[in-house]
Amino acid sequence: MEFSNKLMELRKEKGWSQEELGNKIDVSRQTVSKWELGQTTPEMNKLIEISRLFQITVDELICANSNYDGKQEPQTRLQDGEQKAGSGKFHYEYISEKKIKGIPLVHVNVGVGKCKAKGIIAIGNAATGIIAIGFAATGIVSIALASVGLFAFGWLSVGLAAFGTVAAGALAFGAVAVGVVTFGGISVGVYSIGGMAVASRIAAGGSANAPIAIGDTAQGAITFLRSEAFTKEEVRAAILNRYPGTWDIIIRLILLAAF
Q1: Contact 33/61 with Cβ under 8 angstroms?
Q2: Structural contact between residues 91 and 115, judged by C-beta atoms closer than 8 angstroms
């Protein structure tokens, strides 16, 4: 079977349109059409991408296609836990056979260069998934140097709950923390706790600046200096008087930082 027919057969087995296949390997629908009509043949890097996509070897893919001399880099069929090596550079990829709505349950793709992983659980240089781990990661639970997710952990983290050297989120913990409720060396938010805390409502820390400020130094409409005597009840009353309905958990955190 010629490459053109083989490609068409593999594509139809997956139920993909030419456009869908093109999107997966970053080419246009017209390019895929020309391949399947036998008008052109893909370059080696695209052949490798196609073989990986369909989890077959390059030899199996090109078969009797006389435009290739059989000297291509050997590719192995991906099996659970199988490692691929090439060009002397470390590269490991694992794609689980189990899929959920066409997305692998687990996709691991790490090595030298661009190694993207997309799965329910994704681990790669760049990872996208429900649980994503990598140098750059996006997911509900995301762990990476640069991390974006519902729960994000990393040097630079952005998420609903963010933990990192630089963290931004509704709940942010970091050396520099920006968000709604923030904890950090430098903390900026609606409610902030930190070495230097700046808030639009309540700040507690070494240096606090907010309408209600509690700290060693404090600037605001209502201030509580640690060098002066004050009680938890006084702080609680001031918070509820100025901001009625403030969640008790937030008041408790502020009091914990203040005393």
Answers
A1: no
A2: yes
Q: Long-range contacts for 182-188 (Cβ within 8 Å, ≥24 apart)? A: none
pLDDT in tens, 15-29: 989 999 989 988 898
Pull the structure tokens for residue 109: 């793709």
Cα separation, 95 vs 109, in Å, equals: 8
Handedness of CA 99, 102, 104, 105 (dihedral sign): negative
- The CA-CA-CA angle for residues 145, 82, 71, to 5°, reads 105
- In sign, the C-alpha dihedral spanning 72, 74, 78, 81 is negative
Q: What is the bridge-based pairing of β-strands 106-111 and 91-95?
A: antiparallel
| Contacts of 113 by beta carbon, 8 Å cutoff, 6+ apart | 89, 91, 125
Percent helix, strand, coil in the chain (nearest 5)?
A: 25, 45, 25
pTM > 0.70: yes or no: no
Single out the residue of 36, 45, 25, 87 nearest to residue 65, CA to CA: 36
State the pLDDT confidence band at 90, using cuts at 50, 70 and 90.
Answer: low
DSSP letter, residue 159: E
CA 135 to chain centre: 9
238: left (phi over 0), alpha (psi -120 to 50) or beta: alpha
